[in-house]
Each structure stands twice: as C-alpha cells, then as structure tokens.
Amino acid sequence: xxxxxxxxxxxxxxxxxxxxxxxxxxxxxxxxxxxxxxxxxxxxxxxxxxxxxxxxxxxxxxxxxxxxxxxxxxxxxxxxxxxxxxxxxxxxxxxxxxxxxxxxxxxxxxxxxxxxxxxxxxxxxxxxxxxxxxxxxxxxxxxxxxxxxxxxxxxxxxxxxxxxxxxxxxxxxxxxxxxxxxxxxxxxxxxxxxxxxxxxxxxxxxxxxxxxxxxxxxxxxxxxxxxxxxxxxxxxxxxxxxxxxxxxxxxxxxxxxxxxxxxxxxxxxxxxxxxxxxxxxxxxxxxxxxxxxxxxxxxxxxxxxxxxxxxxxxxxxxxxxxxxxxxxxxxxxxxxxxxxxxxxxxxxxxxxxxxxxxxxxxxxxxxxxxxxxxxxxxxxxxxxxxxxxxxxxxxxxxxxxxxxxxxxxxxxxxxxxxxxxxxxxxxxxxxxxxxxxxxxxxxxxxxxxxxxxxxxxxxxxxxxxxxxxxxxxxxxxxxxxxxxxxxxxxxxxxxxxxxxxxxxxxxxxxxxxxxxxxxxxxxxxxxxxxxxxxxxxxxxxxxxxxxxxxxxxxxxxxxxxxxxxxxxxxxxxxxxxxxxxxxxxxxxxxxxxxxxxxxxxxxxxxxxxxxxxxxxxxxxxxxxxxxxxxxxxxxxxxxxxxxxxxxxxxxxxxxxxxxxxxxxxxxxxxxxxxxxxxxxxxxxxxxxxxxxxxxxxxxxxxxxxxxxxxxxxxxxxxxxxxxxxxxxxxxxxxxxxxxxxxxxxxxxxxxxxxxxxxxxxxxxxxxxxxxxxxxxxxxxxxxxxxxxxxxxxxxxxxxxxxxx
Length: 804
Prior knowledge:
Blueprint: E1 2-3, E2 8-11, E3 16-20, E4 26-31, E5 37-42, E6 48-53, E7 57-62, E8 68-72, E9 79-82, E10 93-97, E11 100-106, E12 112-119, E13 126-130, E14 133-137, E15 141-146, E16 151-157, E17 171-176, E18 179-184, E19 187-195, E20 207-216, E21 220-227, E22 230-236, E23 238-240, E24 247-249, E25 253-259, E26 264-271, E27 286-290, E28 295-299, E29 304-308, H1 312-321, H2 325-334, H3 344-358, H4 361-372, H5 376-388, H6 392-396, H7 408-421, H8 423-432, H9 440-453, H10 458-470, H11 474-484, H12 489-496, H13 506-512, H14 514-523, H15 530-536, H16 541-554, H17 563-573, H18 578-584, H19 590-599, H20 603-612, H21 616-627, H22 630-640, H23 643-653, H24 657-666, H25 673-679, H26 689-730, E30 758-762, E31 767-769, H27 786-790, E32 798-803
Antiparallel strand pairs: 1-2, 2-3, 3-4, 5-6, 6-7, 7-8, 9-10, 10-11, 11-12, 13-14, 14-15, 15-16, 17-18, 18-19, 19-20, 21-22, 22-25, 23-24, 25-26, 27-28, 28-29, 30-31, 30-32
Protein name: Vacuolar protein sorting-associated protein 41 homolog
Membrane topology: Peripheral membrane protein
Function: Plays a role in vesicle-mediated protein trafficking to lysosomal compartments including the endocytic membrane transport pathways.
C-alpha cells in the first residue's frame, strides 16, 4: 500500500490494485496480475503509478493519461519506485529491484533504456526515492545514490546479521530531501546527507552521509515515519505466554519516540488490535504516512488502521469522558483558537452540572462567575436552577452586581430566601449589594413586617437603617442608629450632611460616644454653633464640661464667654485640669476662681491665684501652713525671685528643723547660706545637718570651679581674638586713584606721580592727607580717625603712613 494526500493505493495478494479515498471508499479498481502485488509507487503529484508483482510484471502508467510501460521479468520483482517528478518530461525515470537494482530512463525516441545501478549483494528489499537521492536496502545494508553525479555516496551496513532480511525487512523513510531514517531489526539510524568541502573531494563524491542519531529499541521495527522532531515507530512484539510459557506474537505497538544523541525517550505507546495478530510476522506489518495531514496507516494482512496526531479536541474528549471537567475547561481555554469541536461555554456548563450533581454547591456557584461571564440569560437560568434545589444561598455571594445586572426579581428572590432563615446573611447582602439592584420599597416593607414580630431585633433594625439610607430617608435611619447606639451614626451624619437633624439630638450623641460627638461638633461649628451646643447640654453639666474642655484645648479664646462657667465645671468634674486651665486662660475672673477654690479648699489652685493676684506672702504662708511642704515653698520662692519672700521663708522655718534642712539643701544658689546659719539657735538638733553643710561646701566649690573655668575660657577667647585682630591689622590696604581724602575730598594720590606726598590710612579704612590731619596733642601722641571718633565708634589708630 502507498499513500498520497488525495487517495490511497492498495494492492492485494490476488493481483488487484484498488484506489480509495481518505475515508476508505473504493474509487477505482485495476487488475494487474493473478498473483501478489509486491510494491506500489506514486509520484509527488499522484498522477503516475508504478506497480510490480510476484510474477515479475512491472507496470508504470498515468492515472489520467494514456502513458504506459509494461515489462515482464523472469524473476519476482520486489520493489518499484518512480521518479518523484515523473510528470516532467526530463524526469521519466523509475527503478525496479529484484536480484539487481535497475534504472529505466526514457530516451528521446520514447524508448526505455535500462541500466544496472547495483547487483551482487542479494535481493533488493526496499527502495525510497526523494529528490535526487535514491536509498535502497539489500541483504548487506543500505545504500544511497546521488542521481546527479550517478555516484553511490554511502553504505550503511546492517547491524544484526543474525536476523533473516526477508523476515525482518529494512524500513526506509525520507524525513526531508536530505534526511533518511533507517529501521532494521531493533536498530534505528537517522542519517543526514551533507555537501563535502571542495578541499576534501579529490576522487570522492561531492556528498557524504553522517549518522546524527543512533539507538536501539526493545522490539522489532516494522515501519517508521517522521512526526515533527519525533518518530512514529510500528513495532512487532513477541511475549511469553503465561499458560504455555512459550514465546508468541503480541499485538503490534505504535510508539512515538523522541530521538536523543545516544538513546531515545518514549513519549507514548499504544497497542493495536488487528485481526490475526497471533499468526503475523514482522514482515506482515507496514507503516505509511501522509505528510500533508499527519495521517498514519498501519497495514496488516487483514486490517488497515488509520492513526492521526491527537489534537486538543481529542484530549478534551478524553478528559470529559473521565469526568475531569476542570482540566478540560483549562485545556479549552488555553487552546480556544485551535479547537474546532468544543466550546468553552458548553464545557463550563457541563462542569457546573457535574458539581451540582456531586453536591458541591458552593464550588459550582463560584465557577459560575468565570463560566457564565456577562450573559444575563445564563445567570438567570442558573439562579432558578439553584432555587429548585434549595441552594439560593450558595449562589448569592457570586451574583453579578455590575456588568451585567440581572433582573431585580432575581436579587429580591435571594433576599427573601435569607430573610426567612438567616437575618445575619440578609444584613450582609444588604450591606454588600448596591441599593439599585432591587426594589428598595418592597424590601423595606418586608423588613418592617418582620420587625412587627420581633421589634427588638438589632440585626433587622440595623439593616432597616441601611435600607432607609439607600432610600435617602436619612432622618429615619439616624433615629434607628441612635437607638441602637451604632458606630455608623457619625459616618451617616458626615456623609449626608445631617447636622440640621441632630440639633436636638446632641445629648443622645454625647451619651453614645462623647469623644466622637465633640470632635464632630467642633469640626462643624459653622453648622451647629457653640452657643447652641452649650444650651442643649445645659441640663447635663458633665457633658457640657467635656465639650467646653475640648473647645478650650483647641482654642483658648473661642469659648471665652464660658470661662467663668468652666471654673465650677472643672472644680466639679475635672479638678486635675483646673490648674492648667487657670494658667492658660486670660479671660478667667480671678476673684471668682479664688472664691470657688477657697470654698472647696483647693490649696494649689488658691496658691496660684494668690500669687497671680500679687499676694505672694499669703500664697507662701498657705504653702507652709496648709501643705507644710518646704520643697514647694522653696520652689515658689525661686519662681517669684523676691528677697522679702526668702526672708519670710527663713523666719517661718527657723524653729522647724526639717524646714531648715530643706533650706540648707536648696538655698545656696539664691541666698547666702550664712544668713540662715547665723540665725539657727544653739543646741537645736537639725536632721542631716552634716550632709547639708557638706552640700553647701560642695556647691560653693562648684561655683568656684565654674568661675575659674569661665575665667580660663574668657582669657583664651580674648587672646585668640587679639591675635586675630593683630593679623588683620598687619595686612596691607590698597590705595589707588579712586580713593579720596576724607577731609579735603580730593584724590588721595597726586595726579603727578613725581611729586612727594604723605598719606595716613586708619584701620577703619578712612584715608587722609597727612597735612589734612590735626596735630596730635602732647598728652596723647596717638592719632585717631576724626570721622569714627566723632561717631563714637571707638579709637582707630593709624596703621599705615605712606610717603614719597
């Protein structure tokens, strides 16, 4: 059998040749001989056919023309091959093979001239003609002939000579015009025909053959064919029977092999079921291929098996058959441009149905997002399907909310499902879904009906507030949020500018969250005035204090009219902040504050107010008598820095030994400790007196050291500055024609350089003619700049006197 892209040519054991289309239908029948057809050959165009038979007959004829050649030999002819371009007039050639290889060429007188290409090495077993190269196999090996030079360019010997060549024939196949694939026994060789370099030719052919791949297989080779960079191998397999423990014939295998430099890798393997494979031999199988469509034909005595390269459609079919829907969907997405049989949507819908049947409802619903895409019809169909099986909740999370948007009825149906059984889930959907997906009024009414049965349900109340918000009924939503004391109330007020609605709800807001409420009110003073807030909080002074305190922190002057009120509020609710308030406020009436503090016996605040009102002695007396705190008294005296206060403090402390100790430890830097020591009565026991005296001495020594250190620094700085001034004064001063005398205002240098002149330049850079300066007195021979002396800039003695 031989294969063409357009048809198949099949020869039988009874000498008939059938032409079949690619579907296997017989289109033509030719009777050649009463005995076995050995070989059929076609040219590339499929217009001429060569046939040889067991009785020695050879025929070459045109399928669509009357051209014909007949010859009968006296021995069986095993092979025939016509020139690939036989249709051309200069390519009328074919070869036959029996015991010798003969080339027939048509002469210019339309006669066929035979010539012997090779003989003497046994029967010719196989011939393949490609371009200008003819490859044939005999008992000894494989030869290649270059038809251009009519030279044999290589001989590839047979590897396993123990195998009978008639039982294990050689398989030849051209991959392209220069690559030959040889399979014989268990050996595979891939040969490349190459051009020989001119410097290497001498008496050698212009071409040579290089074996680029060579490896052995586990089984005997019955046929070879190329598949891209891989090989399709038809293998004859023998195995040991488990029953008889004897070697027998197994089913033939069709393998795809990836050649490697010294080995091979099996990509796939399929065992073929053909009739009578138990009796078949290696020579009974043949492999032919159609290059155009990647079709492979396996020929056995009773069957022809057609194999084709598996595409993605075949792969997807297999995955669907095995119920591997996710892998099938992925494969279809990757190869969506090449698949012809399947649609991604159909596979996806089958996958969803499969998941639903398995009870994996959540996964099925999740896959809907990807598979259904933007088709509203498909979405709505699936939603109704989920409703029928009672799984609306499963698909609710994955329903589209934008592009596409389904009918409002779909979303309402899902909300009703949740409202009947899951209030929390219902609230979640209301929060997540935009309000325009469903009829808001219908859902509001349903929620109100449910609240009649359970009026205190916080989840339903919160959800109703959100629905009112979507419906722009902010007043009702605000009332519900305040009732629930919900954190979103402030966000609602800000977002929808509801300040006019909360003028009478300030107390409620403060009770809910005073910090947030105060911040909101202060941030929006233009919408709710300070006076309005204070008025609303009149009956809740503790909240009023919180508001006014925060206002004072932000701005000491904005709430100045309420500072008097704040004194009593601080005294009542926040005493720790009263003293800072009194210190920072400039609008607080001191008399009122003093009265309140004295009534409540707030000593620290009273002391501060007394000192601020100028009554420092009373303040100091209160510290000493009320607080009995010498440290605070000393600190107060330091702050006031008043000698009389120190005197009062010493007089008050003179009969109190603990106070004397405190004064001795702290008075040293403000008052001479001798004044205190002289007043201490003899015999008075003073705690820690020794330590106090030691501290006084240490403080004195420290002062001495500080003075000495400062003196050293001062002397060093003075000396450094003096040296710097001296270096500066030693520098020269440029005098040129542009300078003038500061006294007579004429140029400092004479126009006639030959005349003598005398110039005096001071450090202040003022210049005078010497005759323009006043004569120095006998009391002070130094001269000074008249201008700087008149302006009291200090004396500047002359630094340079120029004469000529």
